[in-house]
Amino acid sequence: MFKCLVIGKANVGKTLFTLNFINYLGFEKIKLTTLKYNGVEKTQEYELEHAKNLLSSDQSYSTSSLQSVDISFPLFNKKKEIKIIDSVGLSEGIENTFKLRKAMLQTLKEIEKSDLIIHIVDLTKDDCLKPDSIDNHIVDYGISAKKYILLANKTDLLSENRSIVRLQKKFEKQHIIPISALNQKGFHNVKTYIRHNI
Ligand SMILES: Nc1nc2c(ncn2[C@@H]2O[C@H](COP(=O)(O)OP(=O)(O)O)[C@@H](O)[C@H]2O)c(=O)[nH]1
Ligand SMILES: [Mg+2]
Question: Ligand 1 — pocket residues by CB below 6 A?
Answer without folding.
Answer: 8, 10-16, 56-58, 62-63, 89, 153-154, 156-157, 180-182
